[in-house]
Amino acid sequence: MKGVILLRRKLDFKLYVITGESYHSSRDMLEVMEAALRGGADIVQLRDKKISKRELLEKARSLRDLTSRYGVPLIINDHPDVALAVNADGVHLGQDDLPLSVARSVLGPHRLIGISTHTIEQARVAERAGADYIGVGPVYPTGTKPGRQAVTTSYVSQAAAEIQIPFVAIGGITTDNAEEVLKAGARRLCAVSAIVGSNDPEGVCRNLLEQITGWKSGS
Ligand code: 3NM
């Protein structure tokens, strides 16, 4: 039971920040992520498709130390073995990654599994298969995932109306369009470039978080 309560608390996030492999070149990834954490990011994902698994493991270790200091869950993109090795809180999988059932058998019941979805059908499948949360996007066109068609806020509204598990809106979300995404029914937002590509990741996080919590309280 304790594991279930802990899992629910970890799903209580509002602002999900993902490391941005192409945005960190001139800055230290840990410094940028720490600024995001100071600004209120309450869940962090390590996503880097360009480095070796050994390098990923090292980054995961250092991010685990950082996120633990802030008491924030750490999710690893794509790699359940790396998640286990660093005692991360879960993994995030795309539609072409390991099937959820395989990831679950590796990770067990007490770690989070998130799935990227781009249609309501994919969302239904992920929910039925036992995902803990889903990503809904890309809401807007984004250079972080080039070539992928935007699903627009209409998919956010569909997910809000139908999906019972937590969902996080992602893709091209900025301080300028966050309100539109919240209006469509999102209660959790995720951003990469708007945060880690900014000169002020802490300020951007604070702004996004204020918009999310302000919306929740109906103001
Ligand atoms: N996944 P930005 S969109 C990593 O729709 C990722 O599943 C998406 O980056 C999805 O905030 C996306 O810079 C990129 O647009 C998000």
Automatic annotation (TrEMBL):
<comment type="pathway">
    <text>Cofactor biosynthesis; thiamine diphosphate biosynthesis; thiamine phosphate from 4-amino-2-methyl-5-diphosphomethylpyrimidine and 4-methyl-5-(2-phosphoethyl)-thiazole: step 1/1.</text>
</comment>
<protein>
    <recommendedName>
        <fullName>Thiamine-phosphate synthase</fullName>
        <ecNumber>2.5.1.3</ecNumber>
    </recommendedName>
</protein>
<keyword id="KW-0460">Magnesium</keyword>
<dbReference type="GO" id="GO:0000287">
    <property type="term" value="F:magnesium ion binding"/>
</dbReference>
<feature type="binding site">
    <location>
        <position position="77"/>
    </location>
    <ligand>
        <name>4-amino-2-methyl-5-(diphosphooxymethyl)pyrimidine</name>
    </ligand>
</feature>
<dbReference type="GO" id="GO:0004789">
    <property type="term" value="F:thiamine-phosphate diphosphorylase activity"/>
</dbReference>
<feature type="binding site">
    <location>
        <position position="78"/>
    </location>
    <ligand>
        <name>Mg(2+)</name>
    </ligand>
</feature>
<keyword id="KW-0808">Transferase</keyword>
<keyword id="KW-0784">Thiamine biosynthesis</keyword>
<feature type="binding site">
    <location>
        <position position="145"/>
    </location>
    <ligand>
        <name>4-amino-2-methyl-5-(diphosphooxymethyl)pyrimidine</name>
    </ligand>
</feature>
<feature type="binding site">
    <location>
        <position position="172"/>
    </location>
    <ligand>
        <name>2-[(2R,5Z)-2-carboxy-4-methylthiazol-5(2H)-ylidene]ethyl phosphate</name>
    </ligand>
</feature>
<feature type="domain" description="Thiamine phosphate synthase/TenI">
    <location>
        <begin position="15"/>
        <end position="195"/>
    </location>
</feature>
<comment type="function">
    <text>Condenses 4-methyl-5-(beta-hydroxyethyl)thiazole monophosphate (THZ-P) and 2-methyl-4-amino-5-hydroxymethyl pyrimidine pyrophosphate (HMP-PP) to form thiamine monophosphate (TMP).</text>
</comment>
<dbReference type="GO" id="GO:0009228">
    <property type="term" value="P:thiamine biosynthetic process"/>
</dbReference>
<dbReference type="GO" id="GO:0005737">
    <property type="term" value="C:cytoplasm"/>
</dbReference>
<feature type="binding site">
    <location>
        <begin position="45"/>
        <end position="49"/>
    </location>
    <ligand>
        <name>4-amino-2-methyl-5-(diphosphooxymethyl)pyrimidine</name>
    </ligand>
</feature>
<feature type="binding site">
    <location>
        <begin position="142"/>
        <end position="144"/>
    </location>
    <ligand>
        <name>2-[(2R,5Z)-2-carboxy-4-methylthiazol-5(2H)-ylidene]ethyl phosphate</name>
    </ligand>
</feature>
<dbReference type="GO" id="GO:0009229">
    <property type="term" value="P:thiamine diphosphate biosynthetic process"/>
</dbReference>
<feature type="binding site">
    <location>
        <position position="116"/>
    </location>
    <ligand>
        <name>4-amino-2-methyl-5-(diphosphooxymethyl)pyrimidine</name>
    </ligand>
</feature>
<comment type="similarity">
    <text>Belongs to the thiamine-phosphate synthase family.</text>
</comment>
<feature type="binding site">
    <location>
        <position position="97"/>
    </location>
    <ligand>
        <name>Mg(2+)</name>
    </ligand>
</feature>
<feature type="binding site">
    <location>
        <begin position="192"/>
        <end position="193"/>
    </location>
    <ligand>
        <name>2-[(2R,5Z)-2-carboxy-4-methylthiazol-5(2H)-ylidene]ethyl phosphate</name>
    </ligand>
</feature>
<keyword id="KW-0479">Metal-binding</keyword>
